[in-house]
Design a protein that fits this description.
Helix content is 61%, strand content 9%. By secondary structure, it is α+β, with helices and mostly antiparallel strands. It has two domains: 173 residues, no CATH class; 135 residues, Heat Shock Protein 90, CATH 3.30.565.
Length: 401
C-alpha cells in the first residue's frame, strides 16, 4: 500500500505540490494571530490570510521556477513583518519550503545568495518597521535561523543526491567494464581455439589428402604400397581426431574433467610431429643445440603449433621434400628455426605472407612474449624463425621481411 502510494506521488508531482500548499496555508494562517504575552494582535487578520495565500500558491511553481518562488515569498514575508506580524516559523513556512526547493535544484552559491539576501531583508524590515515591543534578539536571530536552516538542508540533500548518482554511475561503469573485459576475454579465447583448430585441421588434412591421392594412383598398379599408405592414413586421422577432441574439449564446462593435460602437445612431441609428415612425402630432421630448458605450458604449446604450421606450409607450397627443425637454447632464450631447401614453390600466390596461418603464428609468438620472422632464404627455400624468452617478458615488435 505504501509503495503504491509512493509510486502514485512520484508520477503526480502536481498533487504533491497542491497538498504541500494546502498544508502550509493551514499552518501559516495561525501565525498571523500570534502576539507577545498572549495579547490580541493590533492588526486585522485578513492581510495575513492574503499574503499567506499568495505565498502558498506561488509554491506550486517551486520546481520549475524556484528563484521566482523565493523572491515572491520574500516580498510577502517582508510585507507581513512591516505590517506588524511576529517573525515565527509559522509565518515563514512558505518561504522556508521555497528556499529548500531552491537549494535542491540550484548551486550552493545561488542558494546562499538568496538566503543571506532574505535574512538581511527580513532583519532590516523587522528593525525598521517591526513591532516595537518585539525583543531585539527575536528580530535578529529568528529570520537568520529559519532561513538558513532550509537552505542548509536543501544543500545537503542536493549533495547527497549527487553523491548517490556518482556512485551509481561508477557502479554502472564498472559493470560495463567487467562486461567488456569478459567479452574481450571470450573473444581472445575464441581466437586461440580457432588458431588451434586451424593448426590441427590444416596439419592433418594436408597429409591425409596427399595420402588419399597416392592410394588412388597405386590401388591397381601397386596394391601393397596402397595398403601401407592406407594404414598410415588411418594413423593420421586417428591423431587428428585426438587433437580435435583435446581442442574442442576446451569449450566444455570447467568442471568437466574428462580431458587430460597430457593431450596438450609440446616440445616432447616434436619427433612424433616430424614422423607424421613422412606419409605426405616430407622428411623432417629435428636437431637441438645447447642445454634444454623447461618452458611454460603456453610457450611449449606455441613452439609445437608454430613448427606444425611451418611444416604444413612446406608440405602445401614447397617443391622440396625435406625440411629441418633446429632448436637452439641460450641462457635466456630459445630459438626455433624451420627451414626447407629448394628453389621453387608450387604457387607463388601461396607464399606465407598472407592468410591466417602466418598471422596465427605471429599472434602466438606475441602472446608468450616472443617474436617471429618468416622470409625467403637467399639460397632458396623459406625459413621461419621463432625467438622465445625462457622467462616471460612483454612482447617485442616483430616484422615480416
Amino acid at each position: 500500500m505504501i509503495q503504491r502510494l509512493q509510486r502514485y506521488l512520484s508520477c503526480h508531482p502536481r498533487v504533491v505540490d497542491a497538498a504541500v500548499a494546502v498544508a502550509l496555508l493551514a499552518g501559516s494562517l495561525p501565525g498571523s494571530m500570534v502576539s507577545l504575552q498572549g495579547g490580541a494582535p493590533g492588526i486585522p487578520w485578513w492581510p495575513g490570510l492574503l499574503m499567506t495565500g499568495v505565498s502558498c500558491t506561488v509554491l506550486l511553481w517551486r520546481r520549475s521556477r524556484p528563484r521566482t518562488a523565493v523572491a515572491l515569498n520574500l516580498v510577502c514575508a517582508a510585507a507581513g513583518i512591516a505590517l506588524g506580524y511576529l517573525v515565527t516559523a509559522l509565518l515563514l513556512g512558505p518561504l522556508m519550503v521555497a528556499l529548500y526547493a531552491l537549494a535542491v535544484r540550484t548551486g550552493r552559491r545561488t542558494a546562499n545568495t538568496f538566503a543571506f539576501t532574505g535574512v538581511a531583508l527580513l532583519i532590516g524590515t523587522a528593525l525598521l518597521a517591526g513591532p516595537d515591543d518585539e525583543p531585539l534578539v527575536l528580530k535578529l536571530l529568528s529570520p537568520a535561523f529559519w532561513l538558513l536552516l532550509p537552505t542548509s538542508l536543501g544543500t545537503v540533500t542536493r549533495l547527497r543526491g549527487a553523491y548517490l548518482e556518482a556512485v551509481q554511475a561508477r557502479a554502472e561503469h564498472a559493470e560495463r567494464s567487467r562486461e567488456e573485459e569478459a567479452r574481450h576475454r571470450v573473444t581472445e579465447e575464441r581466437m586461440r581455439i580457432a588458431r588451434d583448430l586451424h593448426d590441427v585441421v590444416a596439419h592433418h588434412l594436408v597429409p591425409a589428402n596427399i595420402q588419399a591421392g597416392t592410394v588412388a594412383r597405386f590401388l591397381r598398379t601397386r596394391p601393397e604400397e596402397a595398403e601401407r599408405i592406407v594404414s598410415e592414413l588411418t594413423g593420421t586421422t586417428s591423431v587428428a581426431l585426438r587433437e580435435l577432441k583435446a581442442t574442442v574439449g576446451l569449450l566444455r564446462d570447467a568442471n568437466d574433467t574428462t580431458g587430460s593435460a597430457e593431450d596438450t602437445p609440446g616440445l616432447a612431441r616434436l619427433p612424433d610431429l616430424a614422423a607424421s609428415f613422412e606419409g605426405a612425402g616430407l622428411t623432417v630432421t629435428v636437431t637441438s643445440e645447447g642445454e634444454p630448458r623447461p618452458l611454460s605450458a603456453g610457450a611449449d604449446l606455441t613452439v609445437y603449433r608454430v613448427v606444425q604450421e611451418a611444416l604444413t606450409n612446406v608440405t602445401k607450397h614447397a617443391v622440396t621434400r625435406t625440411a629441418e627443425v633446429r632448436l637452439t637454447y641460450s641462457p635466456d632464450r630459445l630459438g626455433i628455426t624451420v627451414t626447407n631447401g629448394g628453389r621453387g614453390r608450387r604457387s607463388d600466390s601461396a607464399v606465407p605472407n598472407s592468410g591466417y596461418g602466418l598471422v596465427g603464428m605471429h599472434e602466438r609468438a606475441r602472446s608468450v612474449g616472443g617474436r617471429l620472422r618468416a622470409r625467403p632464404r637467399p639460397e632458396g627455400g623459406f625459413e621461419v624463425v621463432l625467438q622465445l624468452p625462457l622467462e616471460h617478458r612483454p612482447a617485442e615488435e616483430f616484422a615480416v621481411t
